[in-house]
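Consider this pair:
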Amino acid sequence: MTTWKAHKRAQKDVDAKWTKKHGKNHFGYKLHASVDKRYKVIRKIIITNAAVADTTVFEDLLDANNTSRDVYADRGYPSAQREVDLKQAGWRVHIQRKGTAAKVISATQKKRNRRIATPRARVEHVFGALAQMGGKLVRCMGIVRTTFTLNLKAASYNLKRMVFLKEQSRAAS
């Protein structure tokens, strides 16, 4: 990479990284988002290269200005230390439990996971809406341009959502 000449380096995205998801290799960046459960509005986003694990930016996505102190997450996020830290910071933790081949989760934990899955599904609706708006795929190089482009997409999604919510409130009146 350091031996590349300037004109070749200009054609390469040196900020992006490779990752493997569901057996497929992906090159680029990843959009991490915090979504309001009630209104399905994107509260905060972080853009990283694709190799960054979601768990490393989890705490950075938490919005201290959020009036709801509930934090929902899937099976990829549980750790005893994380839960202790979040509780000490005043958050109500709703992280799904994960079993292993050696230790399966109990029926109570399975029920708890189902209860957590319902509000978590609202977050997936946001990503579905982004996919309908052209997806998270952007055709630009560099983390700065990608961050700018995805921030615009998130802002346009939020504007679209706000219009919908305003029309809903008008119809209910």
Notes: The helical segments are 6-9, 58-61, 80-88, 107-132, 143-172. The two ends are 61 Å apart (CA to CA).
